[in-house]
Design a protein that fits this description.
Hypothetical protein af1432; binds fe (ii) ion; globular; 17 helices; mainly alpha; about 0% strand
Length: about 300
């Protein structure tokens, strides 16, 4: 089948990366989000500054307050002002929420079975990444949810900006009787992986390096440098969702575990075994249900 593929890999890769460069001029984050990124990355910023920026956008204000009051955080006292939200959630968390909410809005996510499945997969991986992080005893931060939510953003880009190439891949997925995995076809047909595209996109938006890196290496977390454990969480979450059949494509491959992460996994949880994966699999539906109202705020 490799001979049947029309585009020579290197040429297609260049074409895709050129299109990505051009698309990045259009795919810009709203100025309010860019200002939030600036303020939250500066050591000298104050709560008042961040509050003023958020309150300049009423829709964002409402969404942040809804998130702060959701069961996801479980605060006992009602969070009724942005100042209060900034204090209880912290700069990092506000930044993660705002980024997660704004990035997906840049893409048209409706109107096709593939996009519907990819959206469902992304939300499930977001919840699962948080669940895995918690299971591994990590301090829960919004970055786990946001990293999981955006991990396959490269696929959204390929689908919307490279339909002539990605359409070939999707057709081949259906026609090759599960002989080739998605990743093999992606390499053969596109010459570039969705993880690489995702990493480039997040980098262009000024995302923190731990999120960018975790997205870039979610299939090979052993290669992540900034926060390998974060990449491992997305990796395991993706595998859990693939076993459950919550996948963007109706294929029958389980994603393989990157064996390079085993030592890191055992240093986090000494007796990590298939029992942990079974426990997490059984818990996933409940977690998805529990966070369903939180999750819809990212739609
Ligand atoms: Fe992926
Ligand atoms: Fe995925």
């Amino acid at each position: 089948m490799e001979d049947n593929i029309k585009s020579p890999m290197a040429e297609t890769r260049k074409h895709i990366l050129d299109t990505l460069d051009k698309a990045q001029e259009i795919l810009t984050l709203p100025s309010v989000i860019q200002r939030i990124l600036e303020v939250t990355s500066s050591k000298n910023s104050s709560v008042a500054e961040l509050k003023d920026i958020i309150e300049s956008d009423p829709a964002l204000t409402t969404r942040i307050l809804s998130v702060a009051n959701s069961a996801y955080y479980g605060f006992v006292r009602k969070v009724s002002t942005i100042s209060h939200a900034v204090v209880v959630l912290g700069f990092e968390e506000i930044k993660n929420i705002a980024l997660g909410m704004s990035v997906l809005k840049l893409f048209d996510r409706k109107g096709s079975v593939f996009m519907e499945r990819l959206w469902r997969h992304s939300l499930a991986v977001a919840v699962a990444t948080r669940m895995v992080a918690s299971h591994l005893g990590l301090k829960l931060e919004g970055k786990y949810f946001v990293g999981g939510l955006l991990h396959d953003i490269g696929k959204i880009f390929l689908y919307q900006y490279m339909p002539e190439v990605y359409g070939v891949l999707l057709t081949e997925m259906l026609d090759n009787d599960n002989v080739y995995t998605y990743h093999r076809l992606e390499t053969l047909i596109c010459g570039v992986s969705h993880e690489e595209i995702g990493g480039r996109l997040l980098n262009s938006w000024g995302f923190p390096p731990d999120i960018t890196d975790a997205v870039k290496y979610h299939h090979l977390p052993g290669l992540a440098v900034t926060d390998k454990v974060f990449a491992i969480c997305i990796h395991l979450a993706d595998i859990l969702c693939s076993i459950k059949g919550i996948t963007p494509l109706d294929d029958h491959f389980f994603l393989p575990v990157d064996r390079d992460i085993l030592d890191d996994l055992y240093s986090l949880k000494e007796d990590f075994s298939t029992d942990d994966m079974v426990f997490l699999l059984e818990r996933l539906d409940l977690e998805i249900e529990r966070h369903s109202s939180f999750v819809t705020m990212f739609r």
